[in-house]
């Protein structure tokens, strides 16, 4: 083939390929738009753990891995500062890391500036440890006011108080059998279960809880996966029926 005929042929192929790119992109976007959220077609529950990283975090991570479970960890900034590698381990295992303030002060007792510092300092240290800024926030004790709403919105955080709790923050409940029963009692499709990774008996109860719920066809997902498909407004509370008050 003479060289002069190669140029038009090459150009024609390039133009055809370029024309195909937008069509492929449109097709991919259409497929993405058609994809249903995971929890629209699966029985999902979101397990959440507060106040870490702590002494039992590694044990908890191993248990979750055994059952292919993903969870959400609402961590405290000053503990992240002490245990950055452990915090990074949580994120690398595919779990979600949320903001639980710098040192667990009740925010309704603080000034606007103090609330801003509690949330902002925690946001920065968690981002540094995990390489990703949290998008979820849980107020200590579930105590919130207008200042908390405004500041979480500023940081692009949505509020997740949880929908049910094992109440492991009550000392009288800190028995493995009791906490196992309570976790199974409050479990339900679409629930956000509030627990504490700092409570040894909670961590010890998890194998039995996960085994039982797995047999009931539950999928253990992060909060963000549970809420996938919803329009989420920073500063607002989700799921909308959330009403748990925690220790």
Provide structural commentary.
- There is one protein chain.
- With 247 residues, the protein is α/β, with parallel strands linked by helices.
- The chain folds into two domains: 1-35; 38-226, TIM Barrel (Alpha-Beta Barrel), CATH 3.20.20.370.
- The protein contains ten helices and eight strands.
- Strand 1 (44-50), helix 3 (57-66) and strand 2 form a beta-alpha-beta unit.
- 38% of the residues are buried.
- The model is unreliable at 1-21 (pLDDT under 50).
Q: Which SSEs are present, and which pair or pack?
A:
Layout: H1 3-34, H2 38-41, E1 44-50, H3 57-66, E2 72-75, H4 77-82, H5 84-92, E3 96-99, H6 112-130, E4 136-137, H7 146-154, E5 158-159, E6 164-165, H8 176-186, E7 192-196, H9 200-215, E8 219-220, H10 223-226
Parallel strand pairs: 1-2, 1-7, 1-8, 2-3, 4-5, 6-7
Helix pairs in contact: 3-9, 5-6, 6-7, 8-9
């Amino acid at each position: 083939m003479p060289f002069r005929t190669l140029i038009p042929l090459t150009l024609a192929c390039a133009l055809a390929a370029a024309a195909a790119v937008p069509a492929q992109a449109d097709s991919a976007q259409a497929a993405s738009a058609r994809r249903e959220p995971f929890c629209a077609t699966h029985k999902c529950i979101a397990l959440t753990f507060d106040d870490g990283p702590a002494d039992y975090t590694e044990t908890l991570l191993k248990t979750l891995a055994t059952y292919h479970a993903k969870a959400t960890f609402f961590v405290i900034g000053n503990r992240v500062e002490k245990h950055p590698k452990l915090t990074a381990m949580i994120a690398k295992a595919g779990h979600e890391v949320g903001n639980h303030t710098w040192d667990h002060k009740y925010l309704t007792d603080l000034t606007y500036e103090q609330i801003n510092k509690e949330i902002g300092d925690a946001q920065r240290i968690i981002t540094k440890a995990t390489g990703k800024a949290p998008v979820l926030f849980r107020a200590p004790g579930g105590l919130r006011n207008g200042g908390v709403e405004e500041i979480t919105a500023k940081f692009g955080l949505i509020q997740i108080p949880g929908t049910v709790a094992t109440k492991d923050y009550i000392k009288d409940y800190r028995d493995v059998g009791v906490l196992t029963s309570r976790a199974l009692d409050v479990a339900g499709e679409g629930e956000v279960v509030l627990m504490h990774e700092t409570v040894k008996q909670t961590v010890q109860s998890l194998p039995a809880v996960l085994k039982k719920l797995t047999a009931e066809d539950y999928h253990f997902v992060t909060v963000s996966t549970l809420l996938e498909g919803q329009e989420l407004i920073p500063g607002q509370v989700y799921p909308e029926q959330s009403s748990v008050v925690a220790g």
